[in-house]
Amino acid sequence: QVQLVQSGAEVKKPGSSVKVSCKASGDTFRGFAFSWVRQAPGQGLEWVGTIVPVFNKIDYAQRFLGRVTITADSSTSTAYLDLSSLRSEDTAVYYCARDKCGPRGDCHHFDYWGQGTLVTVSS
Amino acid sequence: EIVLTQSPGTLSLSPGESATLSCRASQSLSSSYLAWYQQKPGQAPRLLIFGGSSRATGIPDRFSGGGSGTDFTLTISRLEPEDIAVYYCQQSGSAPRTFGQGTKLEIK
Q1: What residues of A are in contact with residue B9 (Cβ under 8 Å)?
Q2: What is the rounded distance in angstroms from the CA atom of residue B34 to the CA atom of residue A85?
């Protein structure tokens, strides 16, 4: 059974950084890609970025460039989202999701999701 | 950037009826890269349809997807109270990957 378990809620000050983890169960990790999607309170879904470890490929949404880093540690089957220079608008639930990709690393859809991590940015 | 516009914003129907949700893309995209998700209140999204028309594991055949080019639909037949949720379309055919704004389904 595929399970993605994320780290707990965070409260951060503006200007600080946050690191959210996503641990995948069993053999869910190797050979797969992982993405991060966020959802501000009462709002829709927004793609943040995708890491495809087997291709050493990482893509980020333009609006997060310079502030976001996505990494993956295959030894612990864990993906990470690091977001810096936090502002109040970054308050959201951050979801990790397993990505279904083709043989050339083109990713199609998110087939399994973590439970979400609420990040609150407040002074 | 491909903008996905979903309609209607809210749909209110009775149990047993059918719902048709629309997702219109600002540019043509391959259905291979079009997916639909269901998000119930307080829960993470769940994959319903991928590749435009293929049901994900465990999704009942009441859910079906279709369309091509710029117009895609999600049809939910024989509505049940448990179908109350927000439904999102999403594309991965062109960077950045984008979601529609969602359609909220209410059951009368």
Answers
A1: none
A2: 33
